[in-house]
């Protein structure tokens, strides 16, 4: 698995090579000056396009490219398909488990509402699957935003070198500009890629939390919907007889609550798995230890799981 430390090392080496290519090119003094005054980007009158920020961004993004593509365009698709399948299978098991109770209730109350309730299961399956894949689409959009967020870090880091180069004039100015850029890259490009890595790690953590929130919503909304529908169905089926209603409610509350709790426990277990693999790069252990003050992110994730598990305590909603 690619680590951010290995990505930084590879990018640092490639950046120095890219810098040597820039200074050895036949770019004129006037063009160098124009590029630096515009902080790395310049389109000449001859339609030549220069983007030095992109030159130094490319080694970092190329180091990430393979793992990034694998995760966001292949692995995440598979993870979400498996997750949606697990949730839908749990719904099917739940509907199969409660079917005998609903049939008994329909016979005892001479009402069709318990049987009609089962017809809503396919809708729940479609809704759950749609919510899960909305999470996937959200993650992929955020991945594009994360890509775009790295270039401003590179540009900001190169700004001092551009400013130094812009101030050069008179005899030997081009040589001094080249020397200034080479020295800046050689001395500080590792810091530039460390800053890029820190931003990447922060953005990925935020994306993971957002995905977890989407996935949690996929089953908590379904659970809330089920509880409401079951409660309304019970009241409608036995509305004409208070004594029968209380007897049926007493029996079914226990049976259906047990079924819902099993369903929610299954969802909670499933929900703890998908985002564990959503990680195109990993931090080296040493760096993780140095950044141990980032525990607030993990706390948020723990709170999410606690919210999932707490839904099973609401039996009295029926």
Automatic annotation (TrEMBL):
Xref: InterPro entries: DUF7605
According to the entry, every stretch annotated as the DUF7605 domain falls at 11-188
Bias-annotated ranges (Basic and acidic residues): 274-288
Q: Give the start-end ranges of region Disordered.
A: 269-318
Query: Where is this chain compositionally biased, Acidic residues type?
Result: 289-303
A Pfam family annotated for this UniProt entry: DUF7605
Name under which the protein is recorded: DUF7605 domain-containing protein
Q: What species does this protein belong to? A: Monilinia fructicola (Brown rot fungus)
């Amino acid at each position: 698995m690619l680590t951010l430390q290995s990505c930084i090392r590879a990018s640092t080496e490639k950046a120095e090579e890219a810098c040597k290519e820039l200074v050895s090119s036949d770019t004129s003094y006037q063009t160098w000056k124009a590029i630096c005054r515009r902080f790395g980007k310049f389109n000449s009158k001859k339609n030549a396009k220069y983007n030095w920020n992109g030159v130094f961004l490319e080694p970092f993004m190329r180091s990430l490219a393979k793992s990034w593509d694998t995760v966001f365009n292949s692995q995440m698709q598979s993870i979400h398909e498996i997750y949606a399948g697990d949730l839908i299978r749990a719904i099917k098991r739940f509907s199969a488990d409660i079917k005998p109770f609903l049939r008994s209730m329909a016979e005892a109350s001479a009402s069709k509402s318990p049987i009609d309730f089962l017809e809503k299961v396919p809708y729940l399956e479609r809704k759950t699957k749609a919510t899960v894949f909305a999470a996937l689409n959200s993650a992929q959009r955020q991945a594009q935003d994360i890509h775009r967020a790295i270039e401003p870090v590179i540009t900001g880091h190169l700004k001092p070198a551009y400013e130094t180069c812009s101030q050069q004039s008179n005899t030997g100015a081009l040589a001094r500009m080249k020397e200034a850029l080479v020295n800046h890259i050689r001395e500080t490009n590792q810091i530039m890629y460390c800053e890029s890595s820190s931003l990447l790690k922060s953005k990925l953590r935020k994306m993971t939390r957002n995905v977890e929130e989407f996935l949690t919503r996929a089953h908590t909304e379904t659970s809330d919907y089920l509880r409401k529908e079951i409660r309304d169905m019970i009241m409608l089926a036995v509305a004409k007889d208070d004594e029968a209603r209380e007897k049926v409610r007493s029996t079914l509350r226990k049976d259906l609550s047990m079924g819902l709790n099993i369903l929610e426990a299954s969802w909670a277990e499933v929900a703890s798995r998908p985002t564990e693999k959503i990680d195109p790069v990993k931090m080296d252990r040493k760096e993780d230890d140095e950044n141990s003050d980032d525990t607030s992110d993990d706390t948020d994730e723990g709170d999410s799981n606690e919210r999932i598990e707490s839904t099973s305590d609401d039996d009295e909603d029926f």
